[in-house]
Amino acid sequence: MIPGPLDPPARLLMGPGPISAYPSVLRAMSAPLVGQYDPFMTSAMAETQELYRGVWNTANEATVLIDGTSRAAIEAAIVSLVRPGDRVLVPVFGRFGHLLAEIAERALAEVHTIETDWGQVFPASVIEEAIVRVKPTLLALVQGDTSTTMNQPLEDIGDICRRHGVLFYSDATASLGGNAFDADAWGLDAATAGLQKCLGGPSGSAPITLSPRAVEVVTARRRIEAGIREAGDTSSADFVRSNYFDLAMILEYWGPRRLNHHTEATSMLYAARECARVLLSEGRDEVVARHALAGRAMLEGVRGLGLTVFGDVAHKMNNVVAVEIPDGVPGDAARAALLADFGIEIGTSFGPLHGRVWRIGTMGYNARKDAVLTTLVALEAVLRRFGARVPVGGGVEAAAGVYAGAA
Amino acid sequence: MIPGPLDPPARLLMGPGPISAYPSVLRAMSAPLVGQYDPFMTSAMAETQELYRGVWNTANEATVLIDGTSRAAIEAAIVSLVRPGDRVLVPVFGRFGHLLAEIAERALAEVHTIETDWGQVFPASVIEEAIVRVKPTLLALVQGDTSTTMNQPLEDIGDICRRHGVLFYSDATASLGGNAFDADAWGLDAATAGLQKCLGGPSGSAPITLSPRAVEVVTARRRIEAGIREAGDTSSADFVRSNYFDLAMILEYWGPRRLNHHTEATSMLYAARECARVLLSEGRDEVVARHALAGRAMLEGVRGLGLTVFGDVAHKMNNVVAVEIPDGVPGDAARAALLADFGIEIGTSFGPLHGRVWRIGTMGYNARKDAVLTTLVALEAVLRRFGARVPVGGGVEAAAGVYAGAA
Fold it and tell me: What InterPro entries does UniProt report for this protein, alphabetically (chains A, B) (predicted)?
């Protein structure tokens, strides 16, 4: 029995991501393919690089896409920058810190972690102390960790890394586009993201940017594969233990030499280009402000429903809030009812927070007033159905008040 | 200056891939997103697995997608099946054999290659002799190598591998869908592909299937990442040196436990599902026959233009033909004219064949009579423009004759 064509149900995705894509991003993916060395493709790739320089706020020439999910770009950054035995410092304030540590361990780095309670971020001084103690090659630091909703301040970290001769990498998957990110001003050497959060696209293409200092490191480990190697191509014995994630090769593929590596995922390139185009057309600061407004409205809205917000709200990402599941309400059943009866998805969390909080996102296309208010009325109905005592209209009133105050 | 929305030029992609996608595959990618644990997503993933069992001709439970290009799936197969120091045998008959060797070298395997001239394939006996000599853990063998157009016969190799206790992996990126592939009957332990050739989709999602024997190998190296590890989860010290490509984790993500790994590339999943659905709706054998017919028509067509075909035609893939560039014709300028004036793309090749042959594909959606004939008339016009003496209408006449004979 061969199934029919796809016909996905209507969904308003208000979880921690993936979220509903911008309609124009979905349309971009249905554009016809062109060959990978077509002049149009070359110019679409160059445009996409330039657009992402705008998104990252960087002049980095080495601003490209990795053909995979956000996790693919994390691995590309780490395996290309870190040699087996190199020390890597990972401050962990949620699940995705563990992920960076895990990926660095797989790369056979000597991984050192420092941890803080879930729901908190690190003061820069604590990170500096750890750098002094560990003397890492690389600091790998999540910006926004969706598992806890926290947004780690990065602005002072680059200077600290520079002073101690440490490469500074940040995973901005969950935060980029919805919160300020200044790759150059903050002294980032590498940063990676995905499309499926505030950028408003599908998972499957992962923006990455590398500073000239990071490019030097990856280029020094260059190895051109046999079969396309030419006279004069030398290879380092210290090569990256991955072909797919070897950033030196990936940069040569995107660079003027256009050296064959993978076959670019054309439709995902189209999507990535459109995500950045939509963002910059609205304006980088304007998009962050829209996320801040929607996030504040959702925050006050859930408080208006009498729910308790998890974590250090002063350091929350704009685009997601974690609320404690009220006593007596079955968290997963309530989420399932929200999905089945209202077509609205919100998220659970991981590890220590699993079953304890819901995570509600307001990101990308869905950082919109109607999406916020609709989610709040539906949540109110579901909470009441499961026996919670909630102020009638309390969520919408509070959220609408935030929008009214901003108008 | 922010560029406008994408508007790709009309292209008939008749190169060695990527090729023009099926229209319904492009449409599938513009379908709205759903959450990654949505019941619809779970069923779309399960349907996709079952559809690819049909495509691969296998009962393998472990039939999934890798979120990346075809090269990503190659790396996932090799790094998950091969430990550092393990011996890997790679028979090389074109560029993609070199790629398998390269990826295995990056994984720190002890790589042994045997080579044959470009344009030839290996007799099974030669592969068996090398197996006896090398005693590899894994045989990694390309099925169809687009760089030479050759289609390596695989049907006797599985038995040989089984007799000698060797795991048998094949890269079927360029061949799957357009040429017979019988994963179970031929004794494959692992096989990988991409969408952008005969499957008629965009690059960016890579089907993979693993035999129970291969699953045992990868599962023995299982390591669950910190952050989502639960009581009772044990980890092997012999873990895969990649998180993204750890097939044990990827299988748990696709399996009933749905253990969080990457965020599935939803739009690419939609595309992959539609590629397989289109293929099985037409019929697996019927699609291969359509490729065989279009390939024969193109072969006779280029011969009808007086061109010389490269390589051992008896072992050519159905879906691509390499023709020697006639003396005096500037290969790249002629290709550029075909693209600029007719919107038709054909390919050049790599390494020893670069500048010596063109490669013309007839695959997926473009394995069609009108695509074949249009390409031949345009090629005739371009050849004549560059001073080649070509029989008037010779290409179309020969190709139409093949179609008429088959009718």
Answer: Aminotrans_V_dom, PyrdxlP-dep_Trfase, PyrdxlP-dep_Trfase_major, PyrdxlP-dep_Trfase_small, SP_NH2Trfase/AEP_transaminase
